[in-house]
Amino acid sequence: MSVHDIRPKVSETEKITINLGLVDLGQIDLLVQEGFYSNRTDLIRTAIRNQLTTHADVVRQTISRRSLVLGLQHYSRADLEAVQRAGQTLQIQVLGLASIGSDVSPELALATIESLVVLGALHASPAVKSALAGRIR
């Protein structure tokens, strides 16, 4: 493996925190003990996926209507410099993960990103996130 083969991996999951009532939590633990699920997380992921499947048509229609990019959208410094040279700005709309390169300066981000809508997660340096705070919806 060469040095060029070592790249940071983009996490495919994002940690969230939820509050549950004690009775609900107890029922989850019971189903785990009875072997229906391997752990609490397994049950919660399954429940979420079932709800997303139930509403899949609405999600597809909304993605299309709102012109959202589905999945991973990465913007490198070279990408944003090309946008800047063209005298354009971006209106980024992503359902999933929007990623802005770690070498992108706050000034370049401000010059090229007009607005940013992310339904999911945004990975960018703290300085870029701070600079774009007023443009993130």
Task: Characterize the structure shown.
A three-stranded parallel β-sheet has the order 1-2-3, covered by helices on one side. Helix content is 44%, strand content 21%. With 137 residues, it is of the alpha/beta class. The protein has two domains: 22-54, no CATH class; 62-135, no CATH class. It is built from six helices and three strands; from the N terminus they run αααβαβαβα. Strand 1, helix 4 (77-85) and strand 2 (90-100) form a beta-alpha-beta unit.
Helix-strand blueprint:
Layout lengths: L21 H12 L6 H15 L1 H10 L3 E7 L1 H9 L4 E11 L5 H7 E11 L2 H7 L5
Helix pairs in contact: 4-5, 5-6
Beta content comes to 15-25%
The tally of beta strands, per DSSP, is: 3
Largest sheet: 3 strands, parallel
Query: How would you describe the shape?
Result: elongated
- Widest β-sheet, arrangement of strands: 1-2-3
Gist of the model:
The chain has 137 residues and is of the alpha/beta class. It has helices at 22-33, 40-54, 56-65, 77-85, 106-112, 126-132, and strands at 69-75, 90-100, 113-123. The relative contact order is 0.11.
Descriptors for this entry?
137 residues; alpha/beta; three-stranded parallel beta sheet; 6 helices; disordered N terminus; Arc/MetJ-type ribon-helix-helix transcriptional regulator; Arc_rbn_hlx_hlx; RHH_8; Ribbon_hlx_hlx
